[in-house]
Amino acid sequence: TVPSAAAPENELLAFLTRLNLQSYYQRMHEYGVDSVADIKELTDLDFDHMDIKQFHRKKLQSDPTIESETV
To answer: Which CB contacts under 8 angstroms, 24+ apart, belong to 47-52?
Structure first.
């Protein structure tokens, strides 16, 4: 089941929900994406395997939250 976006430990779901892309949460979780910072590391092949649409990829990786989550 998909956890509540209100749960503080689930920053990934909260992030996806803010972008109206929460439908990808389960796929990302199953693929091993555990945090917002992990999204920065995904390749086109990863997105293909998760069947994430091209525009949504851009939306995910260009969000300012992604930049602030990296070290």
So the answer is: 50/24, 51/27, 52/24, 52/27
pTM: 0.79
For residue 45, the Cα-to-chain-centroid distance in whole angstroms is 15
What's the DSSP call for residue 63?
A: S
- Listed in sequence order, the residues at least 6 apart from 20 whose beta carbon sits closer than 8 Å to its beta carbon are none
CB 21 within 8 A of CB 59: yes
Are 46 and 35 in contact, with CB atoms under 8 Å apart? no
> Rounded to whole angstroms, how far apart are CA atoms 71 and 31?
22
Res 2: pLDDT: 57
